[in-house]
């Protein structure tokens, strides 16, 4: 079927093997699977009712569907996949074609003309039906929301997963409603408003010059009995249909995914400098926890405010996040603090000999005092205005002036220290005798810290927060006013949005986007930088009016970014951030393989609520867990940094241990809990990473794990020889749909009970672990209580109770009955001194002579379940003492083997 008249096909790319036509792939799939595209579609639209199911087993999803709403089976939507689509993906999509259909609409005849923003009521949710959704609560960030009726939907909903229990086992126990990109339009789901249970799909271009009438492919429906497989199949279908992105399995992961790292953000904010970065890496490496990557966050760039003279630098006076949001990039190299670094400076004079590690904290505290005084002034003025009177603010102004003088003294002291550093390098550096600036610094860092492999730096998608300063570079940049789309009107107040609207964006012409990234990244790559953290991604939708709309502008920028990452950073050196909108995922993930799964880690409530130290931590964790359901189809979810000395540090560490992504902290100088970090990180700076990415368990999918007062967040993941369930009491905060903000629910901040069993682990989501689902019994280790239990699939679940902001990790290992005369029941747990203990097991072999051989990475106590006491144990061929007790708890100690990459050979003889 030809695409509608306002849908543009993606630009073909050269490929060695042309993608098969749908008809050809359909015939192949029909031979392999009876549930192929030749079978009737599970969805039907008749007499104003959208149903799912087949034969007598049908369920209504929407009623009162208007006549201009259309439904097109996936198999009938087009006849050929985009040219660069792998044949395997096409065949898999076609094999499941009957499970999918496109939902859309055309403008009714009475509509006056084509429009740039079309909102269509597509029906109402009949009766209560549990759903899980993800919506944008800020421009940049999304979170989960569960409900039962159409009126429960939130604005800017990116997808809805409906539970259809009446069709469980019939292939349609769950249905995903997925808004898509069609041509130059993107879409989202909205509630109809008030007590109306209607569902609205809104298609928008972002430009009044880009209009359309036909939106028949604007959303996609997919049905299935496994919610995790369903998500994958639905996004695979979107991949085959759109051809504008690649799935995660098509891309290589960045090396940092298996490594421990440190980010400079919370340690310095915008005052980051070479000596401070060096000191931070040195502290961790000196404790036997060498960072394998470092992210030099916001503050390293050369930025300038519009009020500053040309070629001056605003960087020295910037401290806290927000100060820089109206500043623009005016050169592609580093700011003066890094630019003046000379080769060898910190090798000759390490920072511990002259650098006051408490000074960055003092600067940040003073800047925070100024910020709080400013908030107090606004509050007092607003209160007086509300009462119709005047108020004397002179005392507050005087206080702010005094605080600014104190801050200036601290910054001058900091600059004086750095000034000495700038003259302490090799003689002749920068004059043909050595490197200077960022290149010299990165080179010296690697010489001093050989374990440090990756250095990433921060950037905004448009260059700086305020884009690029016009006239400052060879690129054609113009300040464009920032205008949020109407759909964002109901989202949360956001300082970043306010500042961007205040200053506009210095937007480089879209056809020069590739030149922008090449100019930035080629310089950085030449300096030894291996990747970028790209932030503020959804700025583009604010400035798209005169550039063909949000889809076309995004395509130009994402194409330039992808090509530059491929050329300058080995195709993988990027973390995407502030990117949680479907525009980015459908258009910007051709090259990107890792991105943030949640809002920022806030060590305290930015609005000053003391409970925010605690309740915001649970909100962060829930954001990451549920966003991973969809983001994990495109990227490996990054659960973000945290601080190891935070009040909830162990709570965060446990989630990072099993998240399946990188582990990194943003500790301040001197602010580390090394004992906690050793439970996350191997002595070589690598981490025991899970095979999959962490996702909520099935019994949490349609629950409010933040403030329903009784649901524990449970997340599952897989290791090579077992599974793991993390249980977290996140109750106490969440979205308030009336106030349009995240707030505390203190009455929910209390102990909550839950249970776990082996079926909570989704064993079949990975081919290499699927057989573990059929084990007759499992050994289960509780991390916090250090209990070892034995369960069968028919056992009663393990009951537990968690205090607020606390956790438990359950490691599940299938029990194997080994060969030989002894017939031992055996299950490997792992190194229990690690939070993800099962991730330490590298290999397992059951010998025919009754011995069990394990390769274990790390140091500490190796635990296995064994119902028989072994005759002896060997570690690296030497006799080793072991403990064996009631309940089958068998333990032996291993040490780190530097010459074997930390791997020990452990053998138990029976």
From TrEMBL:
Keywords: Carbohydrate metabolism, Coiled coil. Its EC number is 2.4.1.82. Residues 1-39 are annotated as: Disordered. Residues 8-39 have a biased composition (Low complexity). It catalyses: alpha-D-galactosyl-(1->3)-1D-myo-inositol + sucrose = raffinose + myo-inositol. Pfam families: Raffinose_syn. Signal peptide: none annotated. One of its GO terms (molecular function) is galactinol-sucrose galactosyltransferase activity. InterPro entries: Aldolase_TIM (IPR013785), GH (IPR017853), Glycosyl_hydrolases_36 (IPR008811). PANTHER family: GALACTINOL--SUCROSE GALACTOSYLTRANSFERASE 4-RELATED, PTHR31268. This is galactinol--sucrose galactosyltransferase.
């Amino acid at each position: 079927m030809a695409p509608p008249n306002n849908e543009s096909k993606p630009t073909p790319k050269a490929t060695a093997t042309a993608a098969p036509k749908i008809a050809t792939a359909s015939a192949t799939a029909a031979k392999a699977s009876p549930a192929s595209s030749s079978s009737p579609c599970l969805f039907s639209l008749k007499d104003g009712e959208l149903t799912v199911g087949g034969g007598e087993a049908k369920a209504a999803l929407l009623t009162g569907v208007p006549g201009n709403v259309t439904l097109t089976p996936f198999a009938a939507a087009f006849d050929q996949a985009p040219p660069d689509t792998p044949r395997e993906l096409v065949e898999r999509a076609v094999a499941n074609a009957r499970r999918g259909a496109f939902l859309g609409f055309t403008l009714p005849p009475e509509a006056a003309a084509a429009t740039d923003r079309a909102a269509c009521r597509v029906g109402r949710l009949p009766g209560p039906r549990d759903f899980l959704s993800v919506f944008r609560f800020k421009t940049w960030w999304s979170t989960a929301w569960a409900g039962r009726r159409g009126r429960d939907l939130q604005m800017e909903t990116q997808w809805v997963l409906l539970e259809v229990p009446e069709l469980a086992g019939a292939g349609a126990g769950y249905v995903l409603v997925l808004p898509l990109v069609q041509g130059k339009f993107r879409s989202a789901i909205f509630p109809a408003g008030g007590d109306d249970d209607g569902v609205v799909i809104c298609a928008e271009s972002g430009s009044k010059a880009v209009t359309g009438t036909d939106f028949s492919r604007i959303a996609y429906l997919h049905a299935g009995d496994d919610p995790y497989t369903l998500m994958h199949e639905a996004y695979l279908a979107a991949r085959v249909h759109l051809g504008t992105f690649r799935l995660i399995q098509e891309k290589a992961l960045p090396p940092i995914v298996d490594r421990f790292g440190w980010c400079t953000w919370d340690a310095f904010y915008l005052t980051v400098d070479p000596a401070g970065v060096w000191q931070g890496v040195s502290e961790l490496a000196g404790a036997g926890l060498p960072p394998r990557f470092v992210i030099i966050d916001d503050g390293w760039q050369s930025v300038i405010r519009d009020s500053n003279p040309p070629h001056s630098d605003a960087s020295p006076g910037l401290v806290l996040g927000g100060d820089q949001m109206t500043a623009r990039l005016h050169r592609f190299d580093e700011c003066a603090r890094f630019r003046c670094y000379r080769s060898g400076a910190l090798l000759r004079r390490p920072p511990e000999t002259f650098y006051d590690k408490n000074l960055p904290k003092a600067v940040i505290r003073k800047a925070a005092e100024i910020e709080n005084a400013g908030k107090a002034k606004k509050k007092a003025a607003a209160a007086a205005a509300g009462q119709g009177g005047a108020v004397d603010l002179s005392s507050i102004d005087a206080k702010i002036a005094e605080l600014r003088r104190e801050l200036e003294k601290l910054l001058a002291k900091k600059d004086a220290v750095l000034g000495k550093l700038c003259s302490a390098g090799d003689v002749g550096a920068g004059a043909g005798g050595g490197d200077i600036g960022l290149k010299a610094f990165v080179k010296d860092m690697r010489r001093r810290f050989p374990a440090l492999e990756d250095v990433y730096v921060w950037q905004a998608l448009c260059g700086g927060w305020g884009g690029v300063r016009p006239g400052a570079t060879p690129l054609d940049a113009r300040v464009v006013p920032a205008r949020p789309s109407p759909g964002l009107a109901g989202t949360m107040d956001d300082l970043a949005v306010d500042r961007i609207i205040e200053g506009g964006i210095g937007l480089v012409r879209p056809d020069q986007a590739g030149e922008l990234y090449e100019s930035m990244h080629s310089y950085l790559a030449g300096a030894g930088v291996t990747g970028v953290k790209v932030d503020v991604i959804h700025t583009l939708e604010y400035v798209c009016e005169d550039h063909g709309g949000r889809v076309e502008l995004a395509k130009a920028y994402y194409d330039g970014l992808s090509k530059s990452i491929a050329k300058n950073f080995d195709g993988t050196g990027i973390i995407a951030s502030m990117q949680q909108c479907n525009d980015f995922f459908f258009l910007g993930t051709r090259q990107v393989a890792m991105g943030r799964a949640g809002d920022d880690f806030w060590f305290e409530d930015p609005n000053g609520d003391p409970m925010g130290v605690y309740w915001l931590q649970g909100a962060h964790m829930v954001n990451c867990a549920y966003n991973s359901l969809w983001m994990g189809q495109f990227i490996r979810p990054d659960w973000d940094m945290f601080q190891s000395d935070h009040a909830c540090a162990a709570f965060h560490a446990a989630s990072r241990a099993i998240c399946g992504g990188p582990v990194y902290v943003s500790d301040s100088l001197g602010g580390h809990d090394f004992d906690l970090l050793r439970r996350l990180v191997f002595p070589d700076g690598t981490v025991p990473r899970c095979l999959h990415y962490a996702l909520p368990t099935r019994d949490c999918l349609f629950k409010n794990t933040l403030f329903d007062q009784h649901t524990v967040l449970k997340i599952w993941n897989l290791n090579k020889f077992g599974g793991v369930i993390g249980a977290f009491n996140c109750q106490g905060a969440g979205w308030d749909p009336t106030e349009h903000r995240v707030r505390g629910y203190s009455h929910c901040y209390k102990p909550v009970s839950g249970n776990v069993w082996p079926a909570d682990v989704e064993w079949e989501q990975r081919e290499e672990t699927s057989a573990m689902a059929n084990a007759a019994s499992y050994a289960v280790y509780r991390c916090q209580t250090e209990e070892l239990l034995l369960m069968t699939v028919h056992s009663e679940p393990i009951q537990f109770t968690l205090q607020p902001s606390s956790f438990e990790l359950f490691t599940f290992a299938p029990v194997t009955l080994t060969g030989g005369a002894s017939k031992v029941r055996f299950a490997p747990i792992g190194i229990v001194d690690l939070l993800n203990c099962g991730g330490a097991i590298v290999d397992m072999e059951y010998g025919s002579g009754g011995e069990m051989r394990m390769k274990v990475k790390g140091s500490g106590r190796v635990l296995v379940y064994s119902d028989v006491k072994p005759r002896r144990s060997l570690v690296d061929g030497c006799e080793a003492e072991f403990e064996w007790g009631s309940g089958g708890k068998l333990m032996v100690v291993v040490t780190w083997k530097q010459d074997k990459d930390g791997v020990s050979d452990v053998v138990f003889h029976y």
